């Protein structure tokens, strides 16, 4: 059983590079980057210019730094608070979700027990029920437990990542040779010790992948905090930005579309950075999702 | 209720099969459950409990005047005859049939192009097509919403400068396609990456055999690559199907810009939201949610069945 | 309410992971009523002297300063001001909190159109015991009628929105258009303006329930009749509605209104560059002009609302909110004290300075208020127009006790008239049907 991250990584022969294929794929790249270009361009504009200039080109004086400064200082530095909240939710939510998915995936892959299939069926089945309608029941439950308006209301539901469980299940099945576990057991190593000492290091690429996906999910979480959190001091960035956006339609409110645009850009930057930095890991982690021999 | 088969049945060797011969199988079984338990515990709290509560709610009706009373399956009968629900369901059905194949098709083509090794600057392509996935749906819809703007947006600028007459993307006839475009933009890279990663680990031996036979690129794709990544194709399709049925963020945010084209029952999920949040009809909203859950599971099951049948 | 919610919820959770999280039984946090603190004004005074904590849910920006001043005046009171969302978002949160029986604020901002829904559900407290009954002369008639529901007073009017016509004088001068005094004339102006500049529109409209109902109100329409739980909805045979659709249908069919949704970035842009030439809306609008359309400072003016009948002076209210005291709140006397400070006491002046439009007759009649020049409107003393409008609001209007729901489906029904060949009259009939069927489902007797 080959370990996925050491599997061969090229097509036989050294194929010629193709200009035509590159050009065709570039269309998709253009499509992917165009809205992002809009965001960058418009983050460089002042509020009045934002409204009366062509969207895809720069106009007026270069206001990016000024916008960033304003975004961070507006309303008593509330943006900083939202950023820290989001970080907290990501660390606890995505970290916890990854941990639970790793434990669960490992358990499902490496221990033969009846009911494993049922576990997966129930997880997928539950995911199929629309979340918007479950929001109110969840809210009522959490409210009874005193969790609403606290970080826990966002963190606890973030702890479940069905796709993460699936990925870790498949990855653990492939990445950890059974012989290794048998050998450890023969040596008298406890299951927990075996897990931490032997299995966990082998699972590293898969863990990074799941971590990245759960990070994106938590970082971009919108619907749940919208219902659970009413105190702006606990808002994550997405809800905070939306409240700035809505400010335009409030009596006496000040439209701050330029801060919404700049804030959106600042919201994306950390995720993009994480993706670029961890590229090497998540690629091999993902690969396990579909190994076939 | 074995609706879906675990990953091992989707084409991979069952993990640990044959190990159960070991004498300590009983003890192992408990250890296995112990590893899965934390996940299941939280899962029960945030998924199963609200679903159980929703099923309970769906059997009652709570009125502003008259209070709460048991109605049995009354809400379900109402749903069966609810024009708003059916129109939303058929809309996401149409969305599913068109958008999912287009999105997965593009994702697959790009993945194959990347995997072919014939691209200049492969790393750049890979990361830039994936980037939109990092953009929150709120921000994505905000950006596209601006570009769709009829009077000052990109479409307007194109029409003005090139003297074309592109239709209004937010008009009732076009808005579903415009939403499809946003969703495709958000998830094409994500699916591409899953396919690409699957392609990267197709064993070299398979290709070598094929090139000895003198098979062309398209033949290799059809005969080797696609069957090899069927597991990834099936799981991506299932998650996309679920995503389509739960379409919510994009239409609900775009509704601010197209209030008359996007109704409160545009998608079933939007409908349950409106029922629950504007109409305080929690019971009926729970009913619609349960019905949608069942419909989604059935469709996902069919996808799974088809995926497996081809494999034989 | 608390107990009912608990009962419904308990079985579901018992089945699952209750033990894991150490659920504790939920004690109902019923508050003390006015009775145990003495009666009326004295209860309020002693609550202020005793002090305590208050939570206020409101999105109105001027309240920030009011809270600061209030706490300075009464150091023993601590007020937590929370922006829990605007309009419907906040109502949803309120209803959720009320249903859960936890996290309910003491005071909440509730718009006039939504108040009767909360009053009917007994989520907000009747303020009569605290002396609110005696305030009928304190507030202008529109807002006062809106907080008087089924013989109780369910909120203190915070601001008001007597309607006026805001118009871009620069545009009107350029095309030599008369400032309309009737809606017929308005329609005439709309045609001339759009013919002269195909990019310019008399106004923008994509279907707004608040605006439509306000204009029908001004036309003397009474599509809603409410008597306790007896409700009647009739747009089809309402003369005011007919007057409205006659003019407005032509505006829509001839594409004379800009298809830009209100409050969007495109809308602000249109107000700034003259492509949206007028706005018929509440007197709270000037603050939004100065903050959101700063570039067009000096271009705009206010005028009395055009009339459905030449020579009349009818007006209506558009928007505006009250501060309501929540039934489930802990310290209702103190909550009332805060609402009174903000809506009747020193808070009113603070809020006027912050750009809010008052509902208090004393301020609406004060010479200083009337003489205030608006630099944004080229120095015009616009309050004179707004104050007159407040006095001319037609009596007898009422919203549905479930207007929040009704407004949420306005664009499903009437909205069709803006994007298809459906007429406004047909759209309003469809709206009527949806409102009737919802009312029936909710147990109202709908005629």
UniProtKB/TrEMBL annotation, chain A:
<dbReference type="InterPro" id="IPR035906">
    <property type="entry name" value="MetI-like_sf"/>
</dbReference>
<keyword id="KW-1133">Transmembrane helix</keyword>
<feature type="transmembrane region" description="Helical">
    <location>
        <begin position="82"/>
        <end position="106"/>
    </location>
</feature>
<keyword id="KW-0812">Transmembrane</keyword>
<keyword id="KW-0813">Transport</keyword>
<feature type="transmembrane region" description="Helical">
    <location>
        <begin position="152"/>
        <end position="173"/>
    </location>
</feature>
<feature type="transmembrane region" description="Helical">
    <location>
        <begin position="20"/>
        <end position="41"/>
    </location>
</feature>
<feature type="transmembrane region" description="Helical">
    <location>
        <begin position="118"/>
        <end position="140"/>
    </location>
</feature>
<feature type="transmembrane region" description="Helical">
    <location>
        <begin position="256"/>
        <end position="278"/>
    </location>
</feature>
<keyword id="KW-1003">Cell membrane</keyword>
<feature type="domain" description="ABC transmembrane type-1">
    <location>
        <begin position="83"/>
        <end position="278"/>
    </location>
</feature>
<keyword id="KW-0472">Membrane</keyword>
<feature type="transmembrane region" description="Helical">
    <location>
        <begin position="194"/>
        <end position="219"/>
    </location>
</feature>
<protein>
    <submittedName>
        <fullName>Carbohydrate ABC transporter permease</fullName>
    </submittedName>
</protein>
<dbReference type="Pfam" id="PF00528">
    <property type="entry name" value="BPD_transp_1"/>
</dbReference>
UniProtKB/TrEMBL annotation, chain B:
<feature type="transmembrane region" description="Helical">
    <location>
        <begin position="31"/>
        <end position="53"/>
    </location>
</feature>
<feature type="transmembrane region" description="Helical">
    <location>
        <begin position="92"/>
        <end position="112"/>
    </location>
</feature>
<keyword id="KW-1133">Transmembrane helix</keyword>
<keyword id="KW-0472">Membrane</keyword>
<keyword id="KW-0813">Transport</keyword>
<keyword id="KW-1003">Cell membrane</keyword>
<keyword id="KW-0812">Transmembrane</keyword>
<feature type="compositionally biased region" description="Low complexity">
    <location>
        <begin position="1"/>
        <end position="17"/>
    </location>
</feature>
<feature type="transmembrane region" description="Helical">
    <location>
        <begin position="124"/>
        <end position="147"/>
    </location>
</feature>
<feature type="transmembrane region" description="Helical">
    <location>
        <begin position="284"/>
        <end position="303"/>
    </location>
</feature>
<dbReference type="InterPro" id="IPR050809">
    <property type="entry name" value="UgpAE/MalFG_permease"/>
</dbReference>
<dbReference type="Pfam" id="PF00528">
    <property type="entry name" value="BPD_transp_1"/>
</dbReference>
<comment type="similarity">
    <text>Belongs to the binding-protein-dependent transport system permease family.</text>
</comment>
<protein>
    <submittedName>
        <fullName>Sugar ABC transporter permease</fullName>
    </submittedName>
</protein>
<feature type="transmembrane region" description="Helical">
    <location>
        <begin position="228"/>
        <end position="248"/>
    </location>
</feature>
UniProtKB/TrEMBL annotation, chain C:
<keyword id="KW-0732">Signal</keyword>
<dbReference type="InterPro" id="IPR006059">
    <property type="entry name" value="SBP"/>
</dbReference>
<protein>
    <submittedName>
        <fullName>Sugar ABC transporter substrate-binding protein</fullName>
    </submittedName>
</protein>
<dbReference type="Pfam" id="PF01547">
    <property type="entry name" value="SBP_bac_1"/>
</dbReference>
<dbReference type="InterPro" id="IPR050490">
    <property type="entry name" value="Bact_solute-bd_prot1"/>
</dbReference>
<feature type="signal peptide">
    <location>
        <begin position="1"/>
        <end position="34"/>
    </location>
</feature>
């Amino acid at each position: 059983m080959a370990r996925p991250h050491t599997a061969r990584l090229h097509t036989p022969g050294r194929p010629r590079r193709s200009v035509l294929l590159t050009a065709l794929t570039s269309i998709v790249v253009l499509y992917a980057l165009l809205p992002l270009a809009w965001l960058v361009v418009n983050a460089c504009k002042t509020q009045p210019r934002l409204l009366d200039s062509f969207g895809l080109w720069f106009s007026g004086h270069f206001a990016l730094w000024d916008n960033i400064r304003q975004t961070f200082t507006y309303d008593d530095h509330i943006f900083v608070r939202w950023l820290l909240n989001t970080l907290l939710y990501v660390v606890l939510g995505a970290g916890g979700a990854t941990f639970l998915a790793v434990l669960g995936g490992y358990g499902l892959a490496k221990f033969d027990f009846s009911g494993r299939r049922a576990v997966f069926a129930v997880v997928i089945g539950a995911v199929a029920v629309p979340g918007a309608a479950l929001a109110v029941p969840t809210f009522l439950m959490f409210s009874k437990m005193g969790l609403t308006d606290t970080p826990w209301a966002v963190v606890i539901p973030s702890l479940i990542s069905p796709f993460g469980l699936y990925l870790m299940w498949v990855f653990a099945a492939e990445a950890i040779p059974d012989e290794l576990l048998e050998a450890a057991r023969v040596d008298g190593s406890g299951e927990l010790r075996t897990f931490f000492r032997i299995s966990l290091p082998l699972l590293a690429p898969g863990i990074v992948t799941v971590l990245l996906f759960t990070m994106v999910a938590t970082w971009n979480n919108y619907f749940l905090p919208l219902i659970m959190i009413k105190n702006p001091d606990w808002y994550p960035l997405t809800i905070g930005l939306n409240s700035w956006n809505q400010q335009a339609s409030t009596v006496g409110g000040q439209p701050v579309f330029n801060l919404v645009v700049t804030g959106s850009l600042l919201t994306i930057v950390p995720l993009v950075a994480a993706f670029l930095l961890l590229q090497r890991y998540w690629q091999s982690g993902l690969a396990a999702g579909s190994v076939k021999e | 209720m074995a609706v879906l088969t675990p990953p091992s049945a989707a084409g991979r060797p069952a993990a640990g099969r044959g190990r159960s011969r070991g004498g300590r199988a009983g003890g192992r079984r408990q250890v296995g459950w112990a590893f899965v338990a934390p996940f299941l515990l939280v899962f029960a709290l945030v998924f199963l409990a609200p679903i159980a509560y929703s099923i309970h709610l769906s059997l009652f009706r709570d009125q502003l005047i008259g209070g709460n009373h048991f109605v049995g399956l009354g809400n379900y009968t109402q749903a069966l005859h609810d024009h708003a629900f059916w129109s939303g369901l058929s809309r996401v059905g149409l969305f599913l049939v068109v958008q999912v194949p287009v999105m997965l098709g593009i994702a697959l083509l790009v993945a194959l192009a990347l995997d072919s090794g014939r691209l200049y600057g492969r790393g750049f392509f890979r990361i830039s097509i994936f980037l939109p996935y990092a953009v929150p749906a709120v921000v994505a819809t905000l950006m596209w919403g601006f570009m769709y703007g009829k009077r000052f947006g990109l479409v307007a600028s194109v029409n003005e400068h090139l003297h074309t007459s592109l239709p209004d993307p937010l008009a009732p006839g076009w808005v579903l396609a415009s939403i499809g475009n946003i969703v495709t933009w958000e998830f094409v890279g994500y699916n591409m990456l899953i396919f690409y990663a699957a392609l990267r680990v197709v064993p070299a031996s398979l290709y070598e055999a094929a090139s000895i036979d003198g098979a062309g690129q398209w033949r290799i794709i059809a005969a080797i690559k696609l069957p090899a990544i069927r597991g990834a194709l099936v799981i991506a399709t299932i998650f996309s199907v679920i995503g389509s049925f739960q379409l919510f963020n994009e239409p609900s945010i775009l509704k601010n810009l197209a209030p008359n084209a996007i109704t409160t029952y545009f998608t079933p999920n939007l409908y349950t939201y409106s029922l629950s949040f504007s109409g305080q009809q929690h019971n009926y909203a729970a009913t619609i949610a349960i019905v949608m859950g069942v419909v989604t599971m059935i469709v996902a099951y069919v996808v799974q069945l088809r995926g497996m049948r081809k494999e034989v | 309410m608390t107990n009912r919610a608990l009962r419904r919820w308990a079985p579901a959770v018992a089945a699952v992971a209750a033990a894991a999280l150490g659920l504790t039984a939920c004690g109902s946090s019923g508050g003390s009523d006015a009775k145990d603190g003495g009666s009326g004004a004295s209860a309020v005074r002693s609550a202020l002297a005793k002090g305590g904590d208050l939570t206020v849910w409101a999105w109105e920006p001027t309240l920030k300063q009011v809270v600061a001043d209030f706490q300075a005046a009464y150091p023993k009171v601590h007020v937590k001001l929370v922006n829990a969302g605007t309009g419907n978002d906040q109502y949803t949160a309120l209803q959720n909190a009320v249903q859960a029986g936890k996290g309910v604020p003491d005071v909440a901002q509730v718009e006039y159109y939504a108040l009767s829904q909360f009053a009917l559900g007994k989520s907000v407290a009747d303020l009569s015991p605290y002396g609110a009954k005696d305030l009928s002369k304190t507030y202008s008639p529109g807002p006062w009628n809106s907080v008087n529901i089924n013989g109780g007073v369910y909120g203190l009017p915070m601001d008001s929105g007597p309607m006026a016509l805001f118009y871009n004088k620069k545009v009107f001068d350029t095309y030599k258009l008369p400032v309309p005094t009737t809606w017929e004339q308005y329609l005439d102006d709309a045609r001339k303006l759009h013919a002269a500049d195909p990019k310019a529109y008399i106004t923008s409209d994509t279907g707004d329930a608040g605006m439509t109902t306000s204009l029908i109100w001004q036309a003397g329409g009474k599509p809603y009749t409410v008597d306790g739980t007896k409700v009647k909805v009739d747009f089809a045979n309402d003369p005011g509605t007919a007057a409205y659709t006659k003019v407005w249908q032509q505006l829509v069919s001839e594409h004379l209104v800009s298809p830009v949704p209100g409050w969007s970035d495109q809308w602000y842009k249109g107000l700034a560059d003259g492509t949206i030439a007028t706005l018929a809306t509440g007197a709270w609008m000037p603050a939004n002009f100065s903050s959101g359309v700063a570039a067009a400072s000096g271009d705009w003016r206010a005028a009395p609302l055009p009339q459905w009948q030449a020579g009349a002076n009818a007006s209506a209210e558009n928007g505006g909110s009250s501060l309501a005291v929540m039934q489930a709140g802990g310290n209702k006397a103190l909550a009332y004290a805060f609402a009174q400070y903000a809506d009747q006491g020193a808070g009113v002046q603070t809020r006027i300075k912050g750009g809010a439009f008052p509902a208090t007759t004393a301020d609406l009649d004060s010479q200083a208020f009337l003489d205030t020049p608006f630099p944004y409107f080229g120095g015009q003393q616009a309050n004179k127009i707004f104050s007159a409008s407040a006095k001319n609001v037609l009596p007898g209007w009422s919203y549905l006790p479930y207007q929040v729901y009704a407004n949420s489906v306005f664009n499903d029904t009437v909205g069709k008239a803006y994007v298809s060949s459906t007429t406004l009259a047909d759209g309003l009939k469809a709206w009527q049907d949806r409102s009737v069927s919802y009312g029936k489902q909710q147990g109202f007797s709908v005629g």
